[in-house]
Amino acid sequence: xxxxxxxxxxxxxxxxxxxxxxxxxxxxxxxxxxxxxxxxxxxxxxxxxxxxxxxxxxxxxxxxxxxxxxxxxxxxxxxxxxxxxxxxxxxxxxxxxxxxxxxxxxxxxxxxxxxxxxxxxxxxxxxxxxxxxxxxxx
Length: 138
Known about the structure:
Blueprint lengths: L16 H19 L25 E7 L2 E4 L2 E3 L4 H9 L5 E7 L5 H12 L4 E5 L9
Parallel strand pairs: 1-4, 4-5
Antiparallel strand pairs: 1-2, 2-3
Family: Belongs to the ExbD/TolR family.
Subcellular location: Cell membrane
Pfam families: ExbD
């Protein structure tokens, strides 16, 4: 259809501002949601490798030993003498609790044994030691 001589032809316009708003909203949603996807209990340490390592359900309580001087109960720094009390409080009236011990491979055997001994003295604690599978077994 031909336009009339006195009719002005207008150019069609595409307004991209609403599209940019939607894209930024989606981007913000994905950025925030990825923060909740990888939840790791405790602090990051270099776990020793074990061929017999088995995957466990996520632990209720994590005890982390990143070095000789520090012990963390979940994410809180704690003294060895306060470990039993802290675990009992985190059990919150439960009969049993799975406590995963995450010790850096550079921590001395004696320090790990001291922590394990304290945990075993706590009523209702089931103890597990966190390891990783060697790269060849994955």
